[in-house]
Amino acid sequence: MFFSFLIIFMKIALFSDTHLGYARFEADSYVQAERTLVEASKQADLILCAGDIFDVKIPKLETLKRAVEIFNRATVPVIAIHGNHERRSRDTVNPVQLLAASTNIILLHGQDTVFEKNGQKIQIFGLGSVPEEYAEEALKRTLERFKPVDGALKILLIHQSIKELVAGAGEEELSLEYLETLPFDLIVNGHIHKTITQLDGRFIIPGSTVITQFKKEEMEGKGYFLYDTESRKSEFIPIASRPFFYEELVFAEANETQIREKVRERVEAIKKEKPDALIAIKLEGTLKEGLSGSDISLDAYENVSIDNRLNVESLGAKLERIRDLRTESLSIKELALRELERKTNGKITLFDSSEIFDKLVEGVDEAIAYLEERNKKETATK
Fold first, then answer.
1. What is the extent of the structural domain holding 219?
2. Model confidence, pTM
3. Which residues of 51-63 are buried (b: 16+ CB within 10 A; e: fewer)?
4. N or C: which end of the chain has fewer CB atoms below 10 A?
């Protein structure tokens, strides 16, 4: 007798970093996480969450209650790991453990589980967040216990920085080069809030479901990935979320009025179209002579963050200027005097920069006496 077994392939939803209870946009964190769980349940046979479900290690009881309510709305199995925001010391309970005890979540840390449906097996190995300097060693040691299941699609669930994807990352971070050598068909990583796919689709970062940083990359939509186990391909599924705009305004020799007007114009234009929008504005460029960035007073707007970088000299320019000064073989005194003259030129007339420098070298009392004398002369001439 001949038997044929029909394997029906599955869809797996992948999401991460809901940051439930995030203080700045707490309501958004709940609403957008709930949308993700509910909508993913309709599309997928299995849901994987790559950590940072909560924003803090010890969330409020109200946040824990909302988390239980949200995850109980999932109608398909949910497998999760903890993230760095939830990581606590050994022998202490983290909030994801409490959530798992109150729901049907399967929580993994250094272990695996097998999910089977309609003849197909999915083997998921999860390792919750560990300090970056121990990440590779922790993976190597825990994977010694990993026994691959024949015929199963193998998935690794982690929550770490990735050397090639994080600016300023150190040598200790995990690398895509290392991850590519691991015996998994798919690697899902949390922690990074931007949606990323690498390694020909084998490596996926779902990004966050709520805005937590007013950065340019947060402009991308929030949602989850839907992975097809037959095609081994994924699709990003956006959810309804609060719109976010990132603006960079560049000025040249501007005064306070010009800056205030430009900021107000941009904020009002965006708010007219999207009243509930979150807005980040970065101010760059130069100010009129005599002004500094700290002199600029801007109006306060709800849900608007302004990063004032006006008159901030670039690191490259500073290094170039230091190199130029060093090549002139100036003494320490000459270097200091040159810098003092550059910063006070055209701004202060009460004292001569070279004279005040010499008086400061003599002592504080001498410098004060010099300034008092100059002030008397200045007053007498008016």
1. 11-238
2. 0.77
3. bbbbbeeebeeeb
4. N
